[in-house]
């Protein structure tokens, strides 16, 4: 055994350790970004409630906070963003339909299964969902939880009915994102 063999092994272990650290940092980045974004969004939401029109969470944002979704039984509180783009979904749940969330009707919210909407796996029929908008608070009760194949069924948005629909990818523990299955939670307003 030469003197160089232990040195090569040391460099090899350092390279493996460095690669592992990069993968770990990459895996932690999305949840960390989502958590920091929720704090900035919360501040923007408070400015919205104080009357600031189009309060942006950060100067270059092309979205705004339009509501807060709460699930009291689970201790969940998520700021909802306007515009259901992939970029916005990285920061929080989004409003899918383009009508103003302050208007009554069919409200559809979408979120990632591994961050903001991971709690959907714990919802049960009868759970209370609370949606706070700039004009008031509406409580909903979960009525249906179903899993649908997005290649076989289309989501129908019907503004003639009042309901809240939460939508995320499924299954929750899948190692691969973007499959065709969706978890759909339908809640109807409390009277």
Quick overview of this protein structure:
This protein has 191 residues and is of the alpha+beta class. It is built from 2 helices and 8 strands.
Architecture overview:
This protein is an alpha+beta fold and 191 residues long. It has one domain (6-189): Sortase, Chain: A, CATH 2.40.260.10. 26% of the residues lie in helices and 30% in strands. It contains two helices and eight strands, in the order αββαββββββ. The protein has helices spanning 4-49, 86-89, and strands spanning 65-71, 76-82, 94-95, 106-110, 128-133, 136-149, 163-169, 181-189. An eight-stranded mixed β-barrel has the order 1-2-3-4-7-8-6-5. The longest helix is centred in the first third of the chain and has 46 residues, at 4-49.
């Amino acid at each position: 055994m030469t003197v160089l063999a232990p040195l090569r092994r040391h460099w090899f272990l350092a390279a493996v350790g460095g690669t592992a650290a990069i993968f770990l940092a990459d895996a932690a980045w999305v949840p960390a970004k989502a958590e920091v974004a929720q704090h900035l969004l919360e501040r923007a939401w408070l400015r919205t409630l104080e009357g600031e029109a189009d309060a942006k969470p950060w100067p270059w944002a092309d979205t705004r906070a339009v509501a807060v979704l709460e699930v009291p039984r689970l201790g969940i509180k998520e700021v909802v963003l306007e515009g259901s783009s992939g970029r916005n979904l990285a920061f929080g749940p989004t409003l899918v339909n383009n009508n103003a969330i302050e208007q009554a009707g069919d409200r559809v919210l979408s979120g990632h299964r591994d961050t903001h909407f991971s709690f959907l796996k714990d919802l049960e029929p009868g759970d209370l969902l609370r949606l706070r908008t700039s004009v008031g608070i509406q409580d909903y009760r979960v009525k249906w939880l179903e899993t649908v194949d997005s290649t076989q069924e289309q989501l129908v948005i019907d503004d003639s009915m009042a309901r809240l629909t939460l939508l995320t990818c499924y299954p929750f523990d899948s190692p691969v994102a973007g499959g065709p299955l969706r978890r759909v939670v339908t809640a109807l307003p409390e009277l």
